[in-house]
Write a structure and sequence with these properties.
Order of helices and strands: HHHHHHHHH
CATH topology of the domain at 31-108: 434 Repressor (Amino-terminal Domain)
CATH architecture of the domain at 31-108: Orthogonal Bundle
Radius of gyration: 26 Å
Distance between the termini: 121 Å
Number of helices: 9
Number of strands: 0
CATH superfamily of the domain at 31-108: lambda repressor-like DNA-binding domains
């Protein structure tokens, strides 16, 4: 009679054959998992608050962080793009939804990366200096957004002669 091993033993032997030194399953980290992990570290705060900011439950966030086959829906990925400051197409691609990213790019054109915040560019400056630079950059950005065409001046009305 053949020697039957338990599924767990077979799984461990299979993983050892694949090259896992400890016999534990090899864990691959997806780009989405890496992004979520990086944002959690960067933003600080709780996982619950982070999950709420992208419109998912804590349980769902934990499931995506633990299981590389899990992902998020398109709406939640778009919220994640807002929170992360990355282009929506890039976040969708990281989550394995490159087909949706391509459709968005086709319909709306590629979304440029958002500029890095002033605080990220000058982390060693004092808060007062950061505020001054932030104001300066925002003023420049506001001027850049204005239309390049000059508005026609209205001719002043002549007041009626009395």
């Amino acid at each position: 009679m053949p020697n039957l091993r338990s599924r767990q033993q077979q799984s461990i032997l299979s993983e050892l054959a694949k090259g896992s030194a400890s016999g534990l399953p090899l864990r691959t980290v997806t780009e989405l998992q890496q992004l979520l992990t990086d944002l959690l570290k960067k933003k600080g705060g709780t996982k619950t608050a982070f999950a709420e900011s992208i419109g998912i439950s804590l349980e769902r966030l934990l499931k995506v962080l633990k299981n590389p086959t899990e992902s998020l829906g398109v709406a939640n990925l778009l919220r994640l793009a807002v929170v992360s400051g990355l282009a929506p197409g890039r976040v969708l691609t990281m989550a394995g939804k490159s087909d949706v990213a391509e459709l968005l790019d086709l319909l709306y054109g590629e979304t440029p990366e958002r500029p890095v915040s002033v605080q990220a560019l000058w982390p060693t400056l004092s808060p007062k200096a950061q505020l001054a630079l932030t104001t300066f950059v925002e003023d420049l950005e506001a001027k850049r957004r204005k239309s390049p065409t000059m508005k026609k001046r209205r001719k002043p009305r002549k007041s009626p002669q009395l």
